[in-house]
Specification:
The structure holds two protein chains of two kinds. Chain A is mainly beta. In chain A, 0% of the residues lie in helices and 48% in strands. Chain A is globular, with a radius of gyration of 13 Å. The N and C termini of chain A lie far apart (37 Å). Chain B is mostly beta strands. Helices cover 0% and strands 46% of the residues of chain B. Chain B is globular, with a radius of gyration of 13 Å. Chain B starts with 8 loop residues before the first strand and ends with a strand. Classes of the chains: A mainly beta, B mainly beta. The A-B interface holds A 4, 40-45, 48, 56, 58-59, 91, 93, 98-99, 101-108 and B 2, 32, 34, 41-46, 49, 85, 87, 93-101.
Chain lengths: 114, 108
Amino acid sequence: EAGVAQSPRYKIIEKRQSVAFWCNPISGHATLYWYQQILGQGPKLLIQFQNNGVVDDSQLPKDRFSAERLKGVDSTLKIQPAKLEDSAVYLCASSLNSRAPEQYFGPGTRLTVT
Amino acid sequence: DAKTTQPPSMDCAEGRAANLPCNHSTISGNEYVYWYRQIHSQGPQYIIHGLKNNETNEMASLIITEDRKSSTLILPHATLRDTAVYYCIVYNNNDMRFGAGTRLTVKP
């Protein structure tokens, strides 16, 4: 089965610019997650979707980050405007549902803000 | 904050068993212990999870102490491809909080 797809794989932008990341989860997976992983740290959950509804966005910096999953399949994560401290790998993961034990992660998008 | 404590790094000889410890002294009765690993430049990969009984699958074994305050992930015959960061996570359908993990290096 195809895994979680993410694009782009790498992105370099200047601070105050905007950027968007795209994620296509595994077919049939109802739950989708976005994580931020800063170098040397473990991933940190930003937002969790169940179908097209938000389950948890308590750690999403809502003044600059937004995410959507309009049709309950693909998802986009946007940062506007970007700050230097947003430099990180942004990981998308999906699971069959919110109670499924296994999350499947994509390869991530490495963002560098200069 | 992560609810687990792991050593920052460990080495293991190729072909030998790798035993990765994890302390989770504040675990609640309905929280599971999960293990993921992250190979360089890849997303994390699920390994195994358990509640209170020992578990085994094709990748690893999970040994949970009777008081559930600690656990050990066992890779029975480590290979060079097992070199990765291993994350121990306590989870109960809330957000999965990854700590810094243990960087396991398998050496030839």
